[in-house]
Design a protein that fits this description.
- The complex is a heterodimer of chains A (740) and B (282).
- Chain A is α+β, with helices and mostly antiparallel strands.
- Helix content of chain A is 25%, strand content 27%.
- In chain A, helix 8 runs parallel beside helix 9.
- The radius of gyration of chain B is 19 Å and the shape is globular.
- In chain B, strand 2, helix 2 and strand 3 form a beta-alpha-beta unit.
- Chain B has 3 domains: 46 residues, Uridine Diphospho-n-acetylenolpyruvylglucosamine Reductase, domain 2 (2-Layer Sandwich), CATH 3.30.43; 113 residues, Uridine Diphospho-n-acetylenolpyruvylglucosamine Reductase, domain 3, CATH 3.30.465.10; 108 residues, CO dehydrogenase flavoprotein, C-terminal domain (Enolase-like, domain 1).
- The chains are: A alpha+beta (740), B alpha+beta (282).
- The interface between A and B is large, with 46 and 35 residues.
Chain lengths: 740, 282
């Protein structure tokens, strides 16, 4: 009977269960938010500021209203409730009031019976601007938040000292599905909004406030989401579509075009970073002093949390006794910056890993060896004083990528050389380099935030067969969360059939699909809700529930089958709703930055091998080896997918991805000129997945999504440095940085 | 509200008549440039003139000693059907966009857009191709070197359409190389084409994306024409060739690269493609 107990349900936790949207997406049949449609619906369009900074002297909508087919033209005067919103600070106007603070800021909105009509009408709105000089450098901007961290002796000295100044350009999340949603006015005076987002309840809170409606009258349902990566944490078209729908009494759909999308969401913070590392002659770190300046752009978004991550994770996964860290984020008139995969850890990692290579050179050590000598271990303290109380296999991850099979020798196929299909070299000028990096990321929300997820689980007989229904508000953004929820329910309830309901706000908040937290948090909530269902189920049996379990549609104990699940359930389904929290965190001391601010730390290491054409400055990443500790691979195939994708996104930042902003204007808002890696730019990857259980997390799991996007950037740049001998202090590395 | 008239002639004569009547009509074939322009709202044509229904435009054949390529022949067909006779053009066609774009995009469209970055332009310049343009007034042939008049501007009159491209088949080695900041699906930062005529010991060149129009490097061509073709090129000649190609360009700083980078990269491309082509001579 022991065997029965251990029988794992097919498609449970640890299986690579197939995702329900997989085949649909491959065939092009998946319905994204941009495919939404309703009878009699109107189309919304947005008029945006052409100036990064200007006073609005007047808005004349007369001509726009005259356009046949136009049903409404609205400005800030028409915002029924709060005029401003924001994730952390409500500083962003729904529609510009008297002033525009970035180029692309929404000024007015239009609803018309055709999208082209709406756009043309928007173009006829006459806005009178008094152009003002923009603040385009973070150093000149008003500081939004300063996070200091002080550990040990601020005046510590060392035998070896290496310093460096680094810069990270503005990366975009570059999701493929643009901002889109459909707002439908309801008979009760409320509105139903179908949309692509990362956090339904954060949207609901802000939209309801701006509409002046109670949250119960603003109901949100998740539509098909084509990628997120942080860019859907903030409000974009949500309030606008609802305002137009409520004003016209008709459903209103809004879909951003690609160019508009680049203006319509936040980006990764550009950063300037200055580091000084002091070490003993044998390469052991004595101190790190660092100053990080992030450009927050025009509005706060999640900048305050991003800068805290940059500060608290800013010396990397290393054990350093003395730390002086000052991280700042400032307002400018550049595009607003906020959440993007890696969330502050990315910028810092490029700098501290560049520094570790410098230190290795100064100490005459191998780059991997210098990292291992300083590697964080379980039980060590972070610069915040927080003890790392789970596995921290920093040294092992580094050893694994170092020991991975070497990259294949240089190809004879020109397409596989730098320049790719451009036929720029047949081997001339091509030099190979190898580089290493490791990164650290926090998982879940930090600094004392009340972070929770809600799950509702019902166990019910359908045609005589037990079926689990799972309902949460957690956003499936492409990462595979729907699959994970079903896997958890199968494992916990021992049933094959699980139905995961569409996420909406009729169930409590799940928190955001960000911070690598949803498998941890919503996975944890579904698990807890299943446990509650199980408890009520066992209570129906006239025996001690201790030692009972559910498997194969039966209640079992060590002695064998106790009862058939169908009999116990009968006509009386069991439903439980649970609000689940991770262990609490603490705020950071505002002067010393001390505090147990983070829930969990996650680590990944990369080794990149590149071929560089040193005469043309072109790069081909030949191979990447990566190792990551995921605690428990809930869905191994999805885990590897996250590692591939995150690594590719980090590669993009290393060699091509940048929103170029000049005088506050975005110069390349299109996929013609904002380049993301193609299949010829992303190399084969050697992926090693470690499963060292975190005793505090459900199933021991560790958030997976962000770590791979953090260390791949510095690893690729280190490899290019090894090939070229150039300092390369800025990403993305451009061809002109490599020649001349 | 204004609308866009969609003109769909079934014959070349109908197309010319339509263009004569509607000079404001924007010709469209594969649509890989035109639709981007429309999507970005850079153009609001009063009419579109669809050329995809005219079968003969998508044909190619011989016209005396030259190949006559209908304006509507796709990049993919250039690669598959003409790669042997026009290797330089085929190499350039392989660098165009993605497979989907190469299925739809045409050389005629590339010329019509007249972008300085058009991938087909340098090999057409190097091969001394001629563009056949037509209107109800008649037909004329314009050397490619005289076709472009500025960024996205050409000698096409408002009533004219591009009918065909006339290209001499390769009389020797041809090469093409294009720099972009990723390894595929990228607009040229700069590009270079070279064509060697073994019998006549003549050289053709074409520079892309490094001047207001695609341009030849005449001094570089003359340098090579004066060299000894029966032996390896002396390294100083190769170096000088690169310098002359770079000097023929007049690049600018833009979102894709700096002018200084383009000049340096062009010299490298010129030297490399020359060495590859010269090696093939032997």
């Amino acid at each position: 009977m022991k065997q029965l107990l251990q029988t794992r349900v097919t498609g449970g936790v640890g299986d690579s269960a197939a995702r329900p949207d997989g085949a649909l997406k491959v065939r092009g049949e998946f319905a994204f938010a941009s495919d939404l449609w309703a009878d009699r619906m109107l189309w919304g369009a947005t008029l945006r500021s052409p100036h990064p900074h200007a006073r609005i002297l007047g808005i004349d909508i007369t001509e726009a209203l005259r356009v046949p087919g136009v049903h409404a033209v609205l400005t800030h005067e028409d915002v029924p409730g709060s005029k401003r919103y924001g994730l952390e600070i409500a500083d962003q106007p729904v529609l510009a009031i008297d002033e525009v603070r970035y180029a692309g800021e929404p000024v007015a909105i239009v609803a018309a019976d055709h999208p082209e009509t709406a756009r043309r009408a928007a173009a006829r709105i006459a806005v009178s601007y008094q152009v003002l000089p923009p603040v385009t450098e973070a150093e000149d901007g008003q500081v939004l938040r300063h996070v200091p961290i002080r550990r040990g002796d601020p005046d510590a000295t060392a035998e070896l000292v290496v310093t460096g100044e680094y810069e990270v350009g503005m990366q975009d999340q570059a999701f493929l599905g643009p901002e889109a949603g459909l707002a439908v006015p309801a008979a009760d005076g409320g509105v139903d909004l179908y949309l692509a987002t990362q956090w339904l309840h954060a949207d609901q809170r802000q939209v309801a406030a701006c509409l002046g409606l109670p949250p119960a009258l603003v109901r949100l349902t998740l539509a098909g989401v084509g990628g997120a990566f942080g860019a859907r944490e903030d409000i974009s078209m949500q309030v606008h579509a609802c305002m137009l729908a409520l004003r016209t009494g008709r459903p209103v759909k809004m879909v951003y075009g690609r160019e508009e999308s680049f203006l319509g969401h936040v980006h990764r913070h550009p950063a300037k970073l200055r580091y000084e590392h002091g070490a003993t002659r044998d390469g052991r770190l004595v101190y790190v002093k660092a100053r990080i300046m992030l450009d927050g752009g025009a509005y706060a978004s999640s900048s305050a949390a991003v800068v805290a991550n940059a500060a608290t994770l800013g010396i990397g996964p290393y054990d350093v006794p003395n730390v002086v860290m000052d991280a700042y984020v400032a307002y400018t008139n550049n595009p607003p910056c906020g959440a993007m995969r890696g969330f502050g850890a990315v910028q810092a990692c490029f700098a501290y890993e560049s520094q570790m290579d410098k230190l290795a050179a100064a100490a005459g050590l191998d780059p991997v060896e210098v990292r291992i000598r300083n590697a964080l271990r379980e039980g060590a303290r972070m610069p915040t004083g927080q003890v790392v109380d789970g596995p921290a296999p920093v040294a092992e991850l580094l050893r694994r990528v170092q020991a991975a099979p070497p990259a294949p020798p240089r190809s004879d196929d020109p397409r596989l050389l730098p320049g790719g299909v451009g036929n720029t070299t047949h081997g001339e000028g091509v030099v190979r380099g190898v580089g290493y990096a490791i990164g650290i990321k926090n998982v879940c929300f930090s600094e004392g935030f009340d972070d929770y997820a809600t799950a509702r689980v019902r166990l019910e007989l359908i045609s005589g067969e037990p079926v689990a229904f799972v309902h949460t508000a957690a956003a499936e953004v492409g990462q595979g969360l729907v699959t994970v929820q079903a896997q958890v329910a199968r494992t916990e309830l021992g049933v094959e059939r699980v139905v995961v309901a569409t996420a909406d706000t009729s169930v409590g908040s799940a928190g955001s699909s960000s911070a690598s937290r949803q498998t941890y948090m919503t996975g944890g909530a579904v698990r807890a809700a299943c446990a509650a269902v199980r408890q009520r189920l066992f209570a129906r049996l006239a025996r001690d529930p201790a030692g009972l379990w559910l498997a194969g549609g039966k209640v079992v104990s060590v002695d064998g089958v106790v009862a058939d699940l169908a009999e116990v359930l009968g006509d009386d389904p069991i439903e439980e709703t649970v609000e689940w929290r991770h262990r609490p965190t603490s705020p950071l001391d505002p002067h010393t930055g001390q505090g147990d601010a983070h829930v969990q730390y996650a680590f990944a290491a990369h080794r990149a091998t590149v071929d560089v054409d040193v005469e043309l400055g072109l790069v081909r990443v030949v191979e990447i080896a990566t190792a990551q500790d995921v605690g428990k691979a809930v869905n191994p195939q999805a885990v590897v997918g996250q590692i591939h994708g995150g690594t590719a996104q980090g590669l993009g930042l290393a060699v091509m991805e940048e929103i170029q902003v000049v005088d506050g204007m975005v110069r390349n808002p299109s996929f013609t000129d904002y380049l993301i890696p193609t299949i010829l730019d992303v190399p084969p990857m050697h992926v090693e997945v470690l499963e060292l259980a975190d005793p505090h997390a459900p199933y021991g799991l560790r958030g997976v999504g962000e770590p791979p996007a953090i260390s791949s950037t510095p690893a690729v740049v280190a490899a290019i440095r090894a090939a070229t001998g150039r300092p390369l202090t800025r990403v993305p590395v451009r061809p002109e940085h490599l020649i001349g | 509200m204004s609308t866009v008239d969609f003109l769909a002639p079934r014959t070349w004569e109908e197309a010319l008549a339509a263009k004569a009547e509607r000079r404001d009509a924007l010709p469209i074939a594969g649509g890989t440039d035109v639709m981007v322009e429309l999507n970005f709202d850079r153009r609001r044509p009063a009419a579109l003139l669809d050329l995809t229904r005219i079968g003969e435009l998508a044909e190619w054949g011989s016209d005396g000693s030259v190949l006559r390529i209908g304006a509507g022949v796709s990049y993919r067909r250039l690669i598959e059907e003409l790669g042997g006779r026009l290797p330089g053009l085929a190499m350039a066609a392989r660098t165009v966009g993605s497979a989907q774009i190469r299925n739809r995009g045409t050389v005629g469209g590339n010329l019509g857009s007249a972008s300085p970055a058009g991938d087909a332009h340098p090999p057409l310049l190097a091969a001394a191709a001629t563009v056949q343009v037509a209107s109800v007034r008649g037909t004329r042939r314009v050397p490619v070197a005289e076709f472009f008049t500025g960024p996205k501007r050409s000698v096409l009159a408002p009533d004219e359409l591009i009918e065909a491209i006339l290209v001499p088949p390769a009389a020797g080695p041809q090469q093409f190389a294009k720099v972009g900041t990723r390894n595929a699906m990228v607009i040229a930062v700069c590009s270079f084409a070279i064509s060697l005529d073994r019998e006549r010991q003549a050289v053709g060149t074409g520079i892309g994306s490094a001047a207001p129009t695609p341009v030849r490097a005449l001094a570089a061509e003359q340098l090579l024409a004066a060299a000894r073709w029966d032996r390896p090129l002396p390294e100083p000649t190769v170096e000088k060739f690169g310098e002359l190609v770079a000097a023929a360009a007049s690049p600018i700083d833009d979102v894709r690269a700096t002018a200084a980078y383009r000049r340096r990269a062009l010299a490298v491309l010129a030297r490399r493609t020359l060495r590859w082509a010269w090696e093939e001579l032997r």
